[in-house]
Q: What sequence folds into this?
């Protein structure tokens, strides 16, 4: 052991393991993994595929077979090479399967629909044919909404007309009114 290491070994850091850490840091390199975190540009779709090779490359990027890959129509608003996946809700997936992400009912690396945040559990179900949730036509729903809003507005306007306030008098001080007699709690003179 060299003289400098002997000096370090005598200090309080040797017993705490800090000395071993300093030695290991000198001998072994620090390794950083690139895949430890993602950048925004890692998730952005690429340019719209024009050729067969670009389509095959985009299908491989999203984990799809080339015959299953279908990009959005190029109408000027297409999200690049992102696949046009069918809309399905998490309600139509096996709820008892072992998913990597349980709340979203999806596996790691699985391509998601572009509006996947709408199709989570408890949200919109695009495959549900039952759109009449209250079993009444839209004009009755509109009438119910207008009635509720008018009732709240009416109650608030009546409440503003007849306001309630606690009956409190102003605090009295001896110097407020001159000549006013204030009584003390002392025994009366006999």
A:
């Amino acid at each position: 052991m060299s003289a400098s290491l002997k000096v370090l070994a005598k200090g309080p850091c040797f017993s705490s393991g800090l000395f071993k850490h300093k030695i290991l840091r000198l001998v072994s390199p620090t390794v950083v993994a690139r895949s430890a975190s993602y950048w925004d540009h890692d998730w952005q779709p690429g340019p719209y595929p024009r050729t067969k090779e670009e389509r095959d490359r985009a299908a491989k990027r999203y984990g799809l077979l080339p015959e299953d890959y279908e990009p959005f129509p190029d109408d000027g608003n297409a999200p690049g090479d992102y696949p046009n996946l069918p809309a399905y809700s998490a309600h139509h997936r096996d709820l008892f399967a072992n998913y990597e992400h349980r709340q979203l009912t999806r596996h790691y690396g699985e391509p998601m629909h572009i509006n996947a945040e709408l199709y989570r559990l408890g949200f919109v179900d695009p495959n549900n044919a039952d759109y009449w949730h209250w079993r009444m036509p839209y004009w009755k729903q509109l009438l119910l909404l207008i009635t509720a809003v008018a009732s709240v507005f009416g109650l608030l306007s009546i409440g503003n007309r007849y306001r309630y306030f606690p009956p409190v008098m102003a605090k009295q001080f001896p110097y407020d009114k001159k000549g006013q007699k204030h009584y003390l709690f002392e025994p009366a003179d006999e």
Q: What stands out?
A: Confidence is low (pLDDT under 50) at residues 4-9. The CA atoms of residues 53 and 59 lie 10 Å apart. The two ends are 104 Å apart (CA to CA).
